[in-house]
Amino acid sequence: MASNAAVPFWRSAGMTYITYSNICANLVRNCLKEPYKSEALAREKVHFSVAKWLDGKPQKPTVRSDTPEE
Amino acid sequence: MYFLQILTLAVSVTLHTSTPPHLQRFRRMQSAQQRCLRPWRLVVSNVVSNFSVCSSRDLGRLPHHEQIFRELDPKGARFISTQVVRNRMKSVKNIQKITKAMKMVAASKLRAVQQRTENSRGLWQPFTALLGDNPSTDVKKNVIVTISSDKGLCGGINSTSVKMSKALYKLNAGPEKEVKYVVLGEKAKAQFVRDSKKAIEISITELQKYPLNYTQVSVLADDILKNVEYDALRIVFNKFQSVVQFIPTVATILSPEVVEREAEAGGKLGDLDSYEIEGGETKGEILQNLAEFQFSCTMFNGVLENACSELGARMSAMDSSSRNAGDMLDRLTLTYNRTRQASITTELIEIISGASALTG
User: Fold this and answer.
1) ipTM value of the model?
2) ∠ CA(B173), CA(B178), CA(B184), 5° rounding?
3) Out of B198, B200, B293, closest to residue A18 by CB
4) Number of domains in chain A
5) Per-residue model confidence as pLDDT tens digits over B329-360
6) Residue A70 within a domain
């Protein structure tokens, strides 16, 4: 019944199902053996920039990226 | 070289003999004609300017308006220059090279992306089988997620998704109802800013720095979910059908509350009650998890489909523009050769008539 008890925990921590499943997926990827492990981890790179808009004007965009800026 | 020889010949003939008056008149008439007909007359190649036929000494004898023209001319302008046409031919050739290269790049990228796109369709299909697609659901808070590309030169795919989104906006707008845009990609953003920037809630760019992957899109979907309140999310993208066909598509994702409401009302969603729920979760929790996961999966597919359509559209756009450049080049070459031939003919006439004036 582990998964049963886990549901409220991650939800009450402010996570969505997407975050939760991503953490799980990353866990599985880390369990792979070496040549496959780095390959799988390199494949899933995140990079995009988000800007919120207020009254028809864009606010300063924030970059979500797991590679540091060059 | 041939051109140069004739020219020197013509010049030596005209300079060593005092030009007969009828020939002078003939030449003046001719140059006036050229002035009217050829817009590129002003640019004159160096070759011609070395052999000035109509020198400043002659200017005094010309009528006033002709004098002004002559002063505007580079020194010794006499023949129509082909330099402008030559430059234009060169630039058209370069443009053609670029468009051809862009087409090749798009074609090679397309193959990989198409494979991934077709595989990703398996992600949303189970959801549609379970929950159905409910584009006509009437709810209070609508969020339209418009997917477009960051780069241009890809035909009309960005404007079609923007048009589709605006139509959806009109369909869903109304008193006590709220419609917001979430915009993915530079191009759609630029189009929305023109007339509906008040309705933009979030804009997202630089999506395609790395090859698209699920982790990226799910983090993005998560960001959207956390920052907007919604009853229904409507994702607009171009579905890739073939290299030349893209179908503007709307995928609707309902919030768990709306799903429950609709399920009670019956219809396709009414079948949900026939499922048995295992474990300790309530139906509400399950539905919320489902809605979130459905959103990220549908986004993943939508982003991939749109990227694929973008490449396909770019391929065909670049193909037609290289074809157009080729057509243009053909026309320019024809004009160029004709002009060149015409000036050679003129020179020959001058030599012959000069010679016959001497002998006759």
Assistant:
1) 0.86
2) 95
3) B293
4) 1
5) 999 999 999 989 988 999 999 999 999 999 97
6) no
